[in-house]
Design goal:
With 258 residues, the chain is of the alpha/beta class. 34% of the residues lie in helices and 21% in strands. The protein has helices spanning 48-58, 75-78, 81-88, 163-179, 196-219, 225-232, 241-257; strands spanning 2-6, 9-13, 26-31, 37-41, 64-69, 92-93, 111-114, 117-123, 132-136, 141-145, 184-187.
């Protein structure tokens, strides 16, 4: 699937649907209108057909890929890193130097300018500790990767992910939405979020509710993460219990540190 979502952001969705990827991983092709320089966020899985679609979109009307960004290390976002570097020669940057090619790591708060396209980098640890979001100030868009999904809620992927930083990241995004700096969210999976403040508040309420359920399960005598999952996530399809267990471990760690 390919769709021009905003004047600066075109979605190229990878053909890798699943319980963790929803309809597939969203690759974003970013470009200032009327300019040729292109930024690609999360080229995604090592799928030659998908990568060619990304290149076709990037190359439209004389465009060229000048920078590749990675939102976090999960394989459905980074598997194509070396192949895409080979195809484009464009430097790749991420918060963690492991996912950089020919360039330095990103810094929290860094303002990028690629052929007139302004991008502000925001470190948003929690889903993973190297997670970032990107703001396009010219159109009040937030590229949220897996920190906020287009539908449903995301996993705090323990042991790399952590609940305390994730809650802090959600509050930071809430501040941007409340101030009007973010009017829409372009996520790493799922559709566009047109009511960011409402969705962030739903995320925060969901986390608070789950955390209380975990407290109650522990008080009832559940001693392992899977025992908590069996109680708290009893109404959730078992195919995602492995993800629920990661989140429960993150919640138990958070409670132990509180």
């Amino acid at each position: 699937m390919t769709e021009e979502v905003t004047p600066r952001a075109t979605l190229v969705r990878a053909d890798n649907p699943g319980v963790m990827t929803l309809d597939g991983t969203n690759t974003w092709v970013l470009r200032e209108p009327g300019r040729s320089g292109v930024v690609v966020l999360d080229p995604g899985p090592l799928d030659e057909a998908h990568l060619q679609r990304v290149l076709d979109v990037a190359g439209h009307d004389g465009g060229r890929v000048e920078l590749v960004l990675y939102s976090h290390w999960h394989p459905d976002h980074t598997d194509a890193i070396d192949r895409f570097f080979e195809l484009t020669g464009a430097p790749a940057r991420a918060l963690d130097e492991k996912w950089c090619r020919g360039a330095a790591p990103l810094a929290d708060g860094e303002l990028l300018d690629v052929d007139g396209l302004e991008i502000r980098v925001i470190a948003t640890p929690g889903h993973t500790m190297d997670s970032i979001c990107l703001v396009l100030p010219a159109e009040d868009s937030l590229l949220s990767a897996d920190t906020i999904l287009g539908k449903g809620t995301t996993v705090v992927a323990h042991p790399d992910g952590a609940l305390g930083p994730y809650l802090d990241s959600l509050h930071a995004i809430r501040g941007l939405a409340a101030s009007g700096e973010v009017a829409r969210i372009l996520s790493g999976h799922g559709p566009v979020v047109d009511e960011p403040l409402r969705v962030v508040d739903e995320y925060l309420a969901h986390r608070a509710e789950r955390l209380q359920q975990v407290r109650d399960a522990v008080a009832a005598g559940d001693t392992t993460a899977m025992q908590v999952v069996e109680r708290v996530y009893a109404d959730v399809d078992r195919s995602v219990w492995f993800a629920a267990e990661m989140s429960v471990r993150a919640q138990l760690e958070y409670l132990a540190q509180s």
